[in-house]
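Suppose a colleague, Dr. K., hands you the sequence of a protein chain of 136 amino acids and asks what its three-dimensional shape might be. Before reaching for any lab equipment, you can write down a predicted structure in token form. Begin with the sequence itself:
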Amino acid sequence: GEGGGLTLEGGTGPKSGSGGGGFNVPLLLYIGHLLAAPYIIWKLLNSAQQNQSGQDLAVPGGNWEKGEGEHFIAKASFPFTAGNQNELSLTDGQLVVLAPQKLQVHQQNGWLLAAQDGKSGLVPANYVKIISKRNG
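The predicted structure, expressed as tokens, is then:
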């Protein structure tokens, strides 16, 4: 035959790889989700546990609710209607007793633990103005 051999042509097909230096965006997104998902789940579980434990802190000993020991006196700036049994309704100008700061850190952000007439519950922090701190 006349050169019936097999010939290989190289370099005419598409090349694999991007030539280096480029970011693989889908891989970065995958790694980001892989790292972020457990953190987000952990934060959600922690906030749910704090909400449940916050209900138990409503009556730590009852002293601050009666105006004994460390507590704060606050005046309601706006009326507030409780949305559930964990909240305390307010009328404009009403005086309430707020729990000491060591109990407030266990509450939801933006809410304060307060008591009035033997009832305790959460009130929106921006609805009340602290008048004074008392230690007894």
